Amino acid sequence: MTEIQNPVKTIAPIFPRFFAFIIDCLIVGVACLVMGKVLYPYFENSPFIFQCLGTLLCLFYFSAFNSSIGDGKTIGKILCKIRVKDFTGASISPTHALIRSSIFIIPFCFIGYLQSFAHPPLSLILIIAFFQSIVFACFYLAVFNGNSQQSLHDVLTRTQILRNTQSNMPHQAIWKVHYYILTLITMIIFSINVWHYVQNQNSTTHDLTSISDDIQNIQIENRYTFIGETESTNQVLILNISQPAYLDQVDTAETLIQRLQQDSNILAQYKINQVQFNFSYQFGLAKLSKATIYDYKKTATTTQLTHIGENTSVKLGF
Question: In what residue span(s) does the RDD domain sit (predicted)?
């Protein structure tokens, strides 16, 4: 009598995993939008803590659902009929899932936040490059690691992605060429970041952003206002800043504008009569942007800013 062998099914392909990730990002992103809006007033002057709380929210979602608590299935994985398991086919513990998620989620969430600094030191540039390399490696292996389709965080924590119809899969080693490719790409990522750092260091003497480490970039904008048939024109100096203090502390904002007056003639040259400060808060997978607008007047001895309005917006992304 011939024994019938059940065919071994391949590991979950990239497309279900890719769509599951998109669904999960949308779900977590919406949660970050809501929670960020609620928590923002309490952490308005603490953007780092604000971002840490958003990252913890993302970690909680992925760690809980990818562990035995959620049977290895986030909402996206449930819809795409895949799940996270260890090499024995068992669900992983919450601690195991937390370590697995942290490898990807922390770099993924913090890259945008770290890049918001106007003039980051070399140490921060290297951290950004390291995080970028991790995120790239995770996506690269998930797409091109055909043997097991384990991503980087799967490899490091000895987990796998299975279809719901699979009980287990034999462990397969990663093709060594992938390691060489990832090493090369990592070197390129670090080289590009260091090159940009060196270029910025060499050009800061001719850049208005060198006046203050808090200035990310400067723009000039003409704005037209119509009241009935009357038209008024405002020349607005727009400053994207890396510290939120300028949004609601007029004295701090005036000090920065005075430094601009002393070190450049941009205010007089463009006949600036309004100044707008922009600052963006990152909360996990959501971005909250706030702008404060001041009327600008210069006297013989002082700079005067008068608050005339502000607006806040939220969106998914970085």
Answer: 12-157
Tokens of residue 164, six digits = 């719901």
Q: What pLDDT digit, counting tens, does each position of 31-67 carry?
A: 999 999 899 889 988 899 999 999 999 999 999 999 9
CA–CA dist 123, 68 (Å, integer): 38
The number of helices, as runs of H, and strands, as runs of E, in the chain is 10, 7
Q: Give the C-alpha separation, 244 to 247, whole Å.
A: 6
**Alpha-carbon span 176 to 166, nearest angstrom:** 26
- Other CB atoms within 10 A of residue 297 CB: 11
Compute the distance between CA of residue 84 and CA of residue 162 in angstroms, rounded to an integer.
Answer: 6
How far is 155 from 254, CA to CA, in rounded Å? 53
Q: Are 59 and 98 a contacting pair, CB within 8 Å? A: yes
Whole-structure pTM value = 0.82
171: left (phi over 0), alpha (psi -120 to 50) or beta: beta
What is the length of the chain? 318
Rounded CA separation 62/50 (Å): 19
Q: Is 202 helix (H, G, I), strand (E, B) or coil?
A: helix
Q: Are 237 and 258 in contact (CB under 8 A)?
A: no
Q: How far apart are CA 98 and CA 106, in angstroms?
A: 11
Pairing of strands 230-241, 274-283: parallel
Q: According to the per-residue pLDDT averaged within each range, which of 116-120, 128-132, 140-144 is highest?
A: 128-132
| CA gap 260, 137 in Å, rounded | 43
Dihedral angle computed from the Cα positions of residues 39, 42, 47 and 52, in that order, rounded to the nearest 10 degrees = -50
φ, ψ (nearest 5 deg) of residue 141: -65, -35
Strand order from edge to edge, sheet including 215-227 = 215-227, 230-241, 274-283, 286-298, 303-316
The proportion of the chain whose per-residue pLDDT surpasses 70, expressed as a percent, equals 90
248 burial level (CB within 10 Å; 0-12, 13-18, 19+): middle
Quote the pLDDT of residue 91: 92
